[in-house]
Every structure is written in C-alpha cells, then in structure tokens.
Amino acid sequence: MSPQLFTQEQKLTIIKHAATIGIKEAAKIAGVHYTTVYDWRNNLKILGEEDFLAYQPSRPGRGKKIISEEQETAVLDCWKSNPGYGPGQVRGQLRRGGITVSTRSVRKIMQANGYRPRGKQTDKASVQRFEASRPLELAQMDILEFFINKAKVYLILLIDDFSRFILGWRLLDQTSVDEVIAVVSDAVTRYGKMEELLTDRGFVFYSWRGINRFEKYLETERIDHTHARPHHPQTLGKVEACNRRIKQELVTQQHFPNLHEARSAIEDWVDHYNYQRPHQGIGGFLVPAERFHGQAKAALSAIDKGLDITGQGELSSFIDRSVINLVVNPEGRLTLYLLGQAIDLSRR
C-alpha cells in the first residue's frame, strides 16, 4: 500500500463508500490500510462534515505509517490469545517475541477490530506512587469476594510489591485467620520471608482489641505488619489492581460450575500472570517473575536485541527460580532460604 495523501473531500468519498461496501473493502480499493479509513470515520463523527472538510492535517508531507500484514496478524493473534490485554500489553508481548510495533499502531488495529478501552476511574496525578526497592521487601495482601452459583467465595491474594509477582493465593467458601496464615506461611516456605506485609483492617488481618492470631503469627515470624489507611484503597493499589484483573478477565467472563473449576481457572491465570504476561507497572516489557527472580536486566537486554524470549508457551529461559533470602528467627537463628527450602545456618 502506498503512503499516498488524500484531500479531505477524497477521504469523505471513501468513508461514504465504506458505509456501503464495508471499511476493509473501501480501504483496499483506495490503497490504504483499513485502520486509516477507521480513523477518518472517527474524525468525521467528532468534527461533523463541514469541519471535517475544512480540516487541514499537520505535516502533510509525512504520509501514513504503513502497517504490514505480518504486524496486523501478530497484533490480532496476541489479542485473541489474551483478550484482557490492552494495547500497551500487546505491544510489550510482541516485543518479547522479537516483533516491534508501536503502541499507537497496536491501538489502531485493535480499535478497528472492536476494542473499546475501559474508562479510567482514578485521577493518577492525585495518587502518590510508592514501590519497594527489592523482592520480598514488602508484600501486599487482600481478599476478593465474588459469587459462584449464588454462593459467596473468597480469593486471598498475596503479591510482592516490587515485582507484582503473586506469591500465594487461596480460593475458599469461607475465610478465616488460619487460611490467611497458611497463605503467608506457604509463600515463606516456597520463596523466603517478606520483611513487611501491608493489609487493610479486615477482621482476619486486624483486631481492634488486642492482637489476633494472624498479627501474632507475623510478630512471631518477625514480619512487620502495616495497615492501609481507612477509606484509602490506593494504599493497596497493586493487589487491588490484580483483583480487578481477575474479576474482569475471569469472574465476569466465565461461568464456574463449582469451586474446583474456579480454582483450576485461577491457577492457570496466576501462572500466565506471573510468567508470561508483560506488566505495565514494571515497564511494560517484563513479566513479574523476571523482576522477582532478578532476571530483569537479562530479559531487557535480549528484548533490545530483538530476541524472542516468550518461550513458545513455556516458561522463559530467563526466569531463574533461585531466590535467596536470609532470615533471623525469634531465637536468633539464621535461616537461608534457597529455592524456597530453609537451611538453618546456626547448626553449621
């Protein structure tokens, strides 16, 4: 397709033909990509016919950026495989596979094929952003409630603040302090001990009179417990964002006949989130596991070279699960967590 220029009158003629024969067919006859006609039609709707004809595009000599069939196919295939992705995530996933497409081009292709961005509900400028400086320095924990066949269930989520890596989760038909403790305990056994844990003041996390067993457990394990400010969900923004993703992409999209089926779907979603899905909060190209396991530099270097690090559906070779974490227990013993296994150094 030639990046030829059209007058506003010619564009209007093409748009009117598109209303009869379809955008893709009209674009093919005009020799332009169908996303270009889609853009013209949107501009006509916004401006009205009179202002559209009077409009003078800036920099008329630059022409249109060509979108190849290979790029379009890659974008649509990625989006079809990951319908919850936005344009930035699709672009990041393609870059991880060695394919470079601008976010603007990705957005144009997706919008021309039915994508509608979700409305932004938060004024990002008014939210103070914070982030831990290393893995396991801070974790966030929350509980998402939803229904399966009119029965309320509870999804406990524990994520690493620095990497957004999901350290643990449980789906239950009723929640309890014991289950919350179990999620943290299992994560410590597998990945090592977090230094601080941020939660809200829900009854399983916090007691208004004295301390509950969860708080006592954290105190015994020497894990600092911090509470989010009341009526200020942005403090738990990272785990809340993860909750929203699961709700939008699983809970509202799939029917689960029972708790077992829901657990299986969430397990697959968590694995994809941790090891395959580029996360916008950590730059848009890395998956949480790469940042959590210290492989960010290697992954970004490979991406810069145009290498495919997606692993063709398997875990990326850049993800090394060897997490090392040194912890002092209440008796003063040093414990080294290697690959999630505790090694008591005081006995050596």
From TrEMBL:
<feature type="domain" description="Integrase catalytic">
    <location>
        <begin position="131"/>
        <end position="296"/>
    </location>
</feature>
<dbReference type="InterPro" id="IPR012337">
    <property type="entry name" value="RNaseH-like_sf"/>
</dbReference>
<dbReference type="Pfam" id="PF13565">
    <property type="entry name" value="HTH_32"/>
</dbReference>
<dbReference type="InterPro" id="IPR036397">
    <property type="entry name" value="RNaseH_sf"/>
</dbReference>
<dbReference type="GO" id="GO:0015074">
    <property type="term" value="P:DNA integration"/>
</dbReference>
<dbReference type="Pfam" id="PF13683">
    <property type="entry name" value="rve_3"/>
</dbReference>
<protein>
    <recommendedName>
        <fullName>Integrase catalytic domain-containing protein</fullName>
    </recommendedName>
</protein>
<dbReference type="GO" id="GO:0003676">
    <property type="term" value="F:nucleic acid binding"/>
</dbReference>
<dbReference type="InterPro" id="IPR001584">
    <property type="entry name" value="Integrase_cat-core"/>
</dbReference>
<dbReference type="InterPro" id="IPR050900">
    <property type="entry name" value="Transposase_IS3/IS150/IS904"/>
</dbReference>
<dbReference type="InterPro" id="IPR009057">
    <property type="entry name" value="Homeodomain-like_sf"/>
</dbReference>
